[in-house]
Fold each of these.
Amino acid sequence: MCEAETALARGDLDSATAAAEAGLRLAQQTGHRRPVPIGNLVMAVSATRQLDPNVGLVYANRLRDNALFGHSVLMPGQCAWAVAQALEARDGTASIASLLVDLVHDKAMTQELLVSQPAAAAWLVRAAQKLGDETIAARIVSLAGELGARNRTFRTIQASAAHAKGLHEKNAAVLDRASALHLDRWARASALEDASAVRFTRRSEHDQAAELLKRAADGYRTVGARRDVLRVASKLRELEVNGGRIPLKSGRFRRAGSQLTDTEYAVADLVSQGLTNGRVARQLFISPHTVAFHLKKIFRKLDVSSRVELASTWTRLPEEHTTAPAPVAGYAGA
């Protein structure tokens, strides 16, 4: 489980998932409960970022049960954050409004979360901004700043404070500093994406904004954060950069069916999990009309005629190892 936590802290989702799965199997075999919540936390966060919202919620619910029955060695802040990420990914930011208020209301719990999960500060600020809650956003920035002031030699805490502050103040220079400080590759990509958004508001910096966005996409792709890759691809389409085409890293395994494009594969995978067109659209950052269009092509390519038949066929397709695609066009890599 230590290996899983370390891999997640680096932003290496595939390694984190593999280690957590192995740890959970071993814990089940030996009857040792203490490390189980850590494995559930890693699986919940990793699955959410890898575009498996239902799986993410399964592990988030297990994590909540661990806390309820007193089996959790984790502090409640980490548990609440894992649940919030999974719910937000599946149902949208509005679904976590009350959970966000409860989490931030407890200073000790929030500070515990910010220390243990450096990517959490910016995520919470971003969620608060989407909800239009300036009070919560400012509180997170203040708490992250306090931690940074007391721990000046801890790079991850400095990165967390800078990221939250830069996002809140819409300060691209501070966000650049945060991206340079982050050791977590997912958090680094997130800071690059946030810096791009700030620079895009200035017409003279549009080219730089596009370059930062491509770097963010490459960072997300490298760690297997498929949901984030798709969001950035949507933004690149808006900017008309590379047509918004970014190769997806599907994880350690991908179901056979190479006739499907990356987007078709993602649509088929989510539909087979029971998601509606609207929810699939929200996950992939495309319109429901586009989901329906892809679904017609999927039905034809897989020779199925309904969503039920697709789900049945999908579970029977063998899994195959995947290889990492080429970097995002126009960016050589960090």
Amino acid sequence: MGNFSIITDFLLMEFSSTRELQVLHAALFLLIYLAAVLGNLLTCAAIITDPHLHCPMYFFLSNLSLLDIGNISVTLPKFIVNSLCGVQSLSLLGCAAQVFFFLFFAATEFALLVAMSYDRFVAICQPLHYGIIMTPARCLWATAGSWLSGLFYSAVHTGNMFRLPFSGSNVIHQFFCDVPHVLKVSASDVFNTEFILIAASSCLLLFCFVFLIASYARIFSSVLKIPSVAGRYKAISTCSPQLMILMLFLSSSMIAVFRNTSDTSPIQNLLIAMSYTTLPSLLNPLIYSLRNQKVTAAMGKMIKRMFFLKKETFILENIKTLKNMYLACQMCKVIHEVA
């Protein structure tokens, strides 16, 4: 009992002891973070400002962009600040917050992708009933259900992991509080309970996965039955971005779940973690902007409106200034003539 100590904070792994490399890491991750946040914000703004995009598919997409902003904001800002300040420690409460929000955004995104696949299934396989099935109220319920299911999933797992004190080593071989690394230093009762929870939730996730595969199988079988080439291309173009995002999410999730956390170098740990914490949020807006012409056109219109509005404001201000200068000169001229 003399060697027993309760953990109150964690030490995150630093990927370089050289100060210059730490600053370089911070600058690189800051650029990645700003690019991801800007891309997702532009996607949300384009969908909100363009009336032609006020439909279920783009409503789900705007929620997906918000989730991507939240997902990448859980890990990268803290890592950037730690790299700039040369700090490795993270409080127990901060670790719990990272675990909670990371699981929350990931679970909500998976549930939302299931809703998005059903939306595409109805749009392509039952187009005549699309307006009846995918009503605004049902879209709101599906989105609210996704957020609530993510909240419930995250609360159950985080509550279990942090219900008992941690003991042993407080070193986490990752740049954030990753779930497998946190479980390594958790109590045995917590680990066993978490194993049961993961096994139970895996059954539900497997059911959702089978639903996704069946939905896209029906979608592609229906697409192949469309007689015209233009019709097939249009149908594929509406669902291929979502399928690419789904495959990216599933592949990154499989890397997160099945990776070996013990026999990997710090650089490998960083690259593996990047694949499921950063890449989806960074690539999702690129996938939609490159593969969806409506989103690209809406972004272009929005940027043009912003640019021309600023330009017109600048011109009007210059005209107003010149007019005031002219009136001032005329007044000085009148005063000079009177004098």
